[in-house]
Amino acid sequence: MILILGRFQPLHNGHLKVLKDAFMEDKEIVIAIGSSQRSDDSHNPFSGEERKLMLESSLKAERIRARIILVPDITCDDTYVSHVEKFIGGKPDKIITENTWTIDLYRRNGYDVHVTPRYFGISATEIRRRIIAGEAWEHMVPRQVAEMMNRSDSVTKLRKMHAEGSVDKSPFVHHHRKDSA
Q: Which fold has domain 2-167?
């Protein structure tokens, strides 16, 4: 089993490349959506369920099967790995991430961690910045994600959060992580 951890705020073409590559390697893929309880600031504007729908629709279009799990943050780094293991129902053979905090935690716990490159130079941070600025962003995400975000109030919601100064105030562990989703 390969575990892919990320926030997917939003899912973008770089994430999709990682998922495609993982599926070519192992047909048992688990995607853990981190910070799943967060959707209240411009750093985490999409709910866990919205991110799950982004993944489901994009994976279906690519004919990739994966189990998608929502994993809320906890306040203790020392127990985060076992926290994720409980949600996914076991220990994965391999972890895929680019997040330095996640890399460190899983390596300290003896896991095989594959550090993925940032494909296509895309980051979710840049996509959110472009949305807020009214710049082109749709080409950076799977078609299904762009359609979903444009049909819903996601773009307006993100711009409103930014305008109101909604910033990340979470006490949870994700503030230790380098922004990678």
A: Rossmann fold (3.40.50)
